[in-house]
Amino acid sequence: MSIPDHLLPRVTIVGRPNVGKSALFNRLVGGNRAIVVDEPGVTRDRLYGRSFWGDHEFMVVDTGGVMTFSRSQIDVMEELAITTTVGMDGIPLTVREAAVARMPSMIERQATAAVEEAAVLIFLVDGQAGLVAADMEIADWLRKNYSDKCVILAVNKCESPHKGLMQASEFWSLGFSPLPISAISGTGTGELLDLVCSELKAIEASDSNEEEENYIPSIAIVGRPNVGKSSILNALVGEDRTIVSPISGTTRDAIDTEITGPDGQKYRLIDTAGIRKRAAVASAGSTTEVLSVNRALRAICRSDVVALVIEAMACITEQDVRIAERIEKEGKGCVIVVNKWDTIPNKNQQTTTYYDQDVREKVRFLDWAPIVYSTAISGHSVDKIIADVGMVEKERSRRLGTSILNQVVQEALAFKPPPRTRGGKRGRVYYSTQAAIRPPTFVFFVNDAKLFPETYRRYMEKQLRKDAGFPGTPIRLLWRSRRRGNKGNGTQ
């Protein structure tokens, strides 16, 4: 049973900038979701990722650094490398300065909001830098305002277990029991997760069932300007929900509309502004367009299935490819809608076949997405869009039985075993299981994730699609090393 993200308990990582919060976030959720560089202030918004340990499943929250208790505004802006010029052409200087001046407090408010919603707090400090004044201020802040919450003090950058105990000892003065860990190597993260899970409460399954019954999938209609996104929405809704104009950029806000499909399933449609190339948006100097494009990109993030609308005569452009990359990266289901199909002259039985091949060649990473040919103005094939979206959403929410999954994996391994290294080592898959849906996520427990190169991982995904389906949705394969005596290993 999959519990919706918002029902899962939150585990928030908090601390001053540059102590390794994003590295720990990546370690706990698997992969490289957060940007990790050796500079303070890189993370500004809250970043959420789903994680599990044993029988517990939870959301990990990465935050920007809490740092402005006793720092001047100028010092904070310099440390965060906030600029008043880059990307702000056309905006009056007074407006720039006012917006930039609010940035540090906005980052800190994001961190505070994440702390408010947390069931468990991981207070992260830097074992190499040692105890600093900012750590003491944050500890006092947590004790004063969040004494009712469980706080786990994790001392990061303690790669050596013996030396780590020495590094952690000076943090006893903060009033919490320090636990030495290394987010990069994984040392101590198993013990950290044990502590986290011991404080988490089990989620009632009945609540999850009720939530699933009331679940309404969201469909974002995205694409370049003037490809007919609003016309498609109006055709689906059956009324003029949005303004349709030949002038590019008519739609600015992301507009939500709820409809009911032929099978009774409800959907939430999101019409968005057209997404132009970043350089074109910057050169136009329109603050409104910048905000509109950002809203369109956020609409992709909060959607379940994306209808990527392209213009028939233009076929796939460079900007369409970039939007497609964003859809795949966000793990969203996708239906490619070729609109204005009536503008293609001299169509015959082979036209669709050739067009399919061209689309598949240009966006290979969406080769699993169905293609619909429509003319929104006349309503031609618009009903097929919602039918394909319904199919994609069902596939995106589908669970594959563990026995069937392992049978597929074993057949793939028998047909093409993992390659050997120069030293003669070969990867072994102990077993696999489906860990999540939306998108379908599969965990492979192996002897060493490094023994499975990217080419072999793509082969396994291809075989999984071939034997188990999942059309219209990306699937995620996570490879977890299980070495003897290494309790703190992580997802690869």
UniProtKB/TrEMBL annotation:
Domain EngA-type G intervals: 217-397
Nucleotide-binding keyword on record: yes
UniProt keywords, alphabetically: GTP-binding, Nucleotide-binding, Repeat, Ribosome biogenesis
InterPro entries cross-referenced by the UniProt entry: G_ENGA, GTP-bd, GTPase_Der, KH_dom-like, KH_dom-like_a/b, P-loop_NTPase, Small_GTP-bd
Alphabetical list of PROSITE patterns matching this protein: G_ENGA
GO annotation, biological process: ribosome biogenesis
One GO MF term: GTP binding
Pfam families documented for this protein: KH_dom-like (PF14714), MMR_HSR1 (PF01926)
SUPFAM superfamilies linked: P-loop containing nucleoside triphosphate hydrolases
Transmembrane regions listed in the UniProt entry: none
HAMAP family: GTPase_Der
Primary role: GTPase that plays an essential role in the late steps of ribosome biogenesis.
Family assignment from sequence similarity: Belongs to the TRAFAC class TrmE-Era-EngA-EngB-Septin-like GTPase superfamily. EngA (Der) GTPase family.
Protein name, entry field: GTPase Der
Organism: Musa acuminata subsp. malaccensis
